[in-house]
Amino acid sequence: MPRKQFIADLEKAKSDASPLPRGILGIQQGEDDGQFDFEYLAAVGDVAVKVTALIPDVSEYPRAHQYMVFCSDDAPRHIASALNHVRGTSRKTVFELLDIISATLDRLSPDHDGDLTMPDSQVDELESDDDDDDDIYDDDHQAFDIRTQNTTIAPTPDGKPKATGRAFRTRIRDDLRATKNASFKIAHLGNLLDGHHAFVTVSVRVSKLGISEEAMQAWHVDPKDYLILIIQYPNGYKTNEELQSYDSPRLAPNLGMRLCASKRYKPTLQEAIKAFTIVQQYDREDLTANELPSAEANVEQHEALRDTFISKPLNSFLQERLVPLLRYRSAGLDWRGAEQWFDEITTKGASSTDAVPDRFYDPEKLPESLPALVKGDHYAALGLTQFSFPLLAMQFALRHFTRCTDFCLVCHRQLDTEIEAIKPYVCDQSLCLYQYMTLGFGPSIEHEIMTQPYVVDLLLSFCYSSAAARKLKDFPIGLAMMIPPVDLDAYYATLPKRQQDVRKAPPTEEENKSPRIIQHYEVGYDADRLELIFFDKPDQCPVRRGSWIVLKRNTVLDLPDLHCRVAAVIYYPTITIDQPIVVGIAASLTTGQPFFTKTTRTVTPATKPKWSPARFQMYDQDFEALNTDEKCLSICKLLDTIPDVKEMQDYLTKNRPCDLRFWVERVSPAALSLLRWVIASNRACIMQVDGDTNAGQERLFGMTDHMQFRFAMGAPDKEQRFISEVRSVSSRLNLNYPTIFAWHGSPLYNWHMIIREGLHYKNIDHGRSYGDGVYHAKEAGTSGGYSGMHTGISPGNWPNSLLHVSSAIALNEIVNAPAEFQSQNPYYVVSQLDWIQTRYLFVKCNPTERSAIAIGAENKPVNAYPQDPGRTPHGLAGAIVIPASAIKSRIFNTQQEGARAPSMKSPAKRLKGSGGFNNPIATDDDDNSSDATDVEDLEILFYEAQLEPEIALPLTINPNAQKPTPTDFVPGALDYTTLPIMPQPAYADSTATKRLMKELTTLSRLQATVPDLGWYIDVPQISNPYQWIIELHSFHLLNPSLPVVSDMAKQNIHSIVLEIQFQSDFPYSPPYVRVIRPRFLSLAQGGGGHIVMGGALCMELLTNSGWSAISSMESVLMQIRLAIASDPPARLEFSGGGSGSGRGRDYGAAEGADGYLRACRAHGWVVPPRWREMAYGIRGPNGASEI
Predict the structure, then answer these.
(1) What DSSP designation does 208 have?
(2) DSSP 253-295
(3) How far is the first Cα of the chain from the last one, in angstroms, to the nearest whole number?
(4) How far apart (Å, rounded) are the C-alpha atoms in residues 330 and 848?
(5) β-bridge mates for residue 24, sequence order
(6) What is the rounded distance in angstroms from the CA atom of residue 812 to the CA atom of residue 740?
(7) Which of 71, 535, 686, 771 is deepest in the core (most CB within 10 A)?
(8) When comparing pLDDT for 405 and 508, which is higher?
(9) Would strands 739-745 and 874-875 be described as parallel, antiparallel, or unpaired?
(10) What is the DSSP string of 1038-1068?
(11) 828-863: pLDDT as tens digits
(12) pLDDT tens per residue across span 130-148
């Protein structure tokens, strides 16, 4: 009941268990029903203001109520004015109202001059229920109340630090630095440090996620795109601990999350606002829709923010479940355990207060092919007491983005299936399929029809063939499809005798459910006027406008059925219909030829009706009530009514909005649902090579008169597993040609399931004379023969197909180890499924003149992939020639020397060494050259140099107070000739050189635009990109009380000189970093700062155990500088003598190498391969060896 709900919310707000918003205290129930009072205290020492909130009609709570908010007569005028202008309070709960009032009054804090910022009637919540159509702010200031930073520091009455206090800002920086150190890019928009409305964005390049190229194409993302998680804090930044303390009503107004993609690592302010702006979707409001372009949209602006293909389901999932899951994570569960325990609570009635069963603590075994970035888990870090919410949110988002095919897109439970797919789908619950289709979580069928019409034609043709042969296993259950009536016996009576004899065995008792009797209505039909008349008029009209019917004409001729929509019933017993769709399902099933006509006649009003006898049946048969055979037949009948792809293209081109659901007179709701199901349930990546809308891909040579499609199946990491197997076998057998190619053919009715389940050998269609496995032929004609085979019943062709497919065969790439196959003569029988990767699908077409399909010319590829001469497969015109661009394993024939696998003649691309990450798809890191971090996003990571006191009373900082001492570092003053550096590396690798030059370019640009970075690199002095000299300086900007600051001042030392040397396989092995000068005390001598005896740095980051190939040198330098300043602090050695400036002896390269090895042995860290050869081949400044 509404009043009961209001009382419960009010009591909960009054209880101590519910933390109140900043400044709110003393909540009491008022004198009137629906009234409550509370006090607002801006700061300790101020006078509390009494505020009253009143709901005139409590019976409307919490869905349609209004609030009246006012304060006492003695309240300050600016507070009374602010409360009079509060907006967005309608339909808000008690908790949400308190948050809004707290945020509104908090904006009135004094600024630098003690003036008050008056409330702006334009400034309020992003989502205003009072003005849904005016959701976009006119400018940035209205969105975020941008002003100078508040310098008044005071704790709130509940004892928590005020949002403008140093502790609050330090926590924000801690959380953002943790996210940055995890190799993500961070950014912020708005007044984040002021505790006002702001956005935090966390982003990562798609190329770093280990996703195959085929998966990127299927997911509509580009390797250079950034995947961006935008976190909105409407009422100021909230920590992980604060968010976990909120219940659902309090959480919604304090947190929002959206997953997007862009070419830039951060969105603009207006783009971020659009991401959270709810839009009206045609005839309804879709709470998951926003103003951003879709994943499939052709974005005109190169850097525009857009949704990803999975944004819609994932946004709601993040919003609803992330924080509850984090509560379970804090109890020691991993992500999988937390998700399973949440499902246990929500579905089986378990209580969140119950003891968590031990089975939920079993650790999840993640696929080895996942990059370290994707497998990262902030909660698994040891020694932490507080955790960064932005980092946890991004890691959770990556878990469900990169592994989207492992989870249901609706309920998000992990799928318990062995089927591997390249596109995500739903579980086997009918409710999930229904929501997947109706909520728009699936792919845009309109986009598919416009961009790849022949792929849509192919999918519909495969489904039709499978249904006609009664081979369908999965059906569109849960979509509430009402279909034309099905009479299976009447259908079989139309088939030739030989086909009636191959009917299936008698149905079981369960399958013998007969559909209810569908009533026939006898009518007169006027084909010219498109009208029906009821001669025997029922009491009520049995149909209504929009109903679909099947009209059968009573003639001696066996005329095809007419499917049509009822256009009007206002003149009942005469009703008007739309132009009928004329189809002949029996003819198409027996002859495979289309039977489709559409006529239009002009009729004058004076024309006398010409009624011909007919009868009709309504579309009111429940699809789910049919048995298997009847479902297959009904699918064929519905597919008969769907227009061909060119006709659908024409409609979408000429009409707006571009949506087939508005073509009501041509496509029935049941047919549209079936069309969406066929396209959405396809879990393979099929890309047109031929056709007028292709992307300019090269054709394979040797398959004349066949339409070609690029074809990939399996999980997103299937390509990675395949290349790993190729690498392993090629190394073991010392192969010159790591892979071979062969053909796989199957009857047309099998392809509908093949593209959903992938290749396997669970079913036996043609025997297994040569053992268990996937059968491959060396000749295309052999596989084509199997594709055209059928078992006594015509496979059937979709009547409206433009392709008219008669056979389909796939070209697969296989590991070149025939001796280890189940059989190699006369067929390749391969039982190792990870040894097979599909590459092409070839379709034999029989187009008509109306089809006018475009098949490319037979030209040999310019850049052909080298094949094993002894095992080259043959097409229809001799040996095939494959374009190299189609084959990912070509890297084995193009790799350079110096890789880690010495036994291979053409070893795979070098990756991270002994750390265990064996991902053959390289994770790129082009951020540094193409998208430098903005200055404001770097500055927020640095802690404040002047520490602000936190006291009980308000304190205004004196503007004349002492400021941090300016730096005494002078760039370019270092004499490089005095440095005992290591010999310049003589090796080089194109990949490493390219990466290092990008790093140098980024660092040079960064230090030219950002002052006081704390490090300096003299780029003109670098003569070899594999050897750098870095100076660290200005540690007083981190903390002026650091011992290293006073030590450097006493010895008149202005910088710490580091030498960094890179190996030829960088970034897959870490850089070697050592201190040259000055000398430091070891840990045993009272020193620290991660600098050990010999000048080496004791950091796991700089070993193979902790290094990540996606780390940038910008982040490495920042972490080294912070490590030197960390506890226990670094201390300089005061013994004199030596080279250089005379203030101490420099570190030699040999002692630095010894110190590095000692540190690795002490901690069990892995030393990079070939590191010793690099580190001990050293000389002094005069060229003499020091070893």
Answers:
(1) G
(2) GG-EEEEEEESSSS--HHHHHHHT--EEETTEEETT--SSPPT
(3) 85
(4) 65
(5) 40
(6) 8
(7) 686
(8) 405
(9) unpaired
(10) T-TT-HHHHHHHHTT---EEEEEE--TTTTS
(11) 999 888 898 888 999 888 877 666 677 777 788 888
(12) 333 333 333 343 343 333 3
